[in-house]
Amino acid sequence: MWEWFQHNSGAISSIATLATLVVWIGYFQVLLNGYRHRMRARILINRGGGRNIDARCVLSNMSSEPIYIEAIVISLEGDEDDQICSLSDFEIRSSSEVDPRVKMLQGPLDSAEMVDIGSYREILDQIMDFNGRSGAGYTGKFTITVIATYTAENALVAAERTYEAYEDGGKVRLYSPTVSAQMVRSKRERRRLQRLLEQDDLHRARGANA
After folding, report:
1. Beta bridge partners of 108
2. Higher-confidence residue: 101 or 72?
3. Is the separation of the CB atoms in 114 and 58 below 8 Å?
4. Do residues 26 and 93 both lie within one domain?
5. Is the per-residue pLDDT at 36 higher than 50?
6. Which residue, 143, 130, 145, is CA-closest to 207?
7. Count of domains for the chain
8. Residues 118 and 158 occupy one common structural domain
9. For the whole prediction, is pTM greater than 0.70?
10. Phi, psi torsion values for 123, nearest 5 degrees
11. CA–CA distances in Å: residue 141 to residues 56, 75, 128, 174, 183
């Protein structure tokens, strides 16, 4: 047996080296996957202070690096067509709030930082006013999309969460079919968001020149 090992020592050494290399490649892959997971953008859209329409809409950046909120887009589900509106289309809020992000609904958000963008009622009322339906209120499904630039990737990222506003005992309550916001990660969806931002910029430029 010993003679066999001596005779095949070269082959055995090569196999051992190859096995060690495979182990290190696997270990490196585990580390790389863990790093990528930690560096992936994560944006949360949550309710605060209740489950009705007067609850606060809170955005949180749970990414490892800061983000810059480019736009907050609301899509109202309609009988025929969905109504899509960017909150940045609205006039700057007249508020005593000193945080400019709350007034303009844009700006940087550090890692593990959150911002209250107002109640769901305020957001929906603004959209109703914007569409000439002041005082009409809204019940139905709507989706909030937060579009941001992620500094770690220098690319657009986004989170979406759908809610349903429904009447219950004379009050309008909120229900979400998902426990958290869904991140938009596919290249196709990111291109769609880029086009949406470009259309929003064009709309604002036309409004400024009108």
Report:
1. 68
2. 72
3. yes
4. no
5. yes
6. 130
7. 2
8. yes
9. yes
10. -65, -50
11. 17, 9, 14, 9, 19
Contact status, residue 110 vs residue 66, Cβ threshold 8 Å: yes
Tell me, what's the pLDDT at 67? 93
CB 155 within 8 A of CB 190: yes
- Whether residue 46 is predicted with pLDDT greater than 80 in this model: the reply is yes
On whether both 12 and 65 belong to a single domain, the answer is no
The pair phi, psi for residue 38, each rounded to 5°, is -70, -30
Q: Given a cut of 70, is residue 124 above it in pLDDT? A: yes
Instruction: Retrieve residue 153's tokens.
Output: 């990737």
Q: Are residues 103 and 160 in the same domain?
A: yes
Q: Torsion angle of alpha carbons 45, 135, 172, 79, nearest 10°? A: -80
CA distance 117 to 107: 12
Nearest Cα to Cα of residue 42 among 58, 70, 74, 66: 66
How far apart CA 126 and CA 105 sit, in angstroms, is: 13
Q: Is 99 helix (H, G, I), strand (E, B) or coil?
A: coil
Return the structure tokens found at 15: 């196999």
Locate 158 and state its tokens: 């986004």
Are both 183 and 118 inside the same structural domain? yes
- Cα–Cα dist 96/65, whole Å: 29
What is the distance in angstroms between the CA of the first residue and the CA of the last residue of the chain?
A: 92
> In the structure encoding, which two tokens stand for residue 53, read together?
């329409």
**Residue ranges making up the domain that contains 21:** 2-32
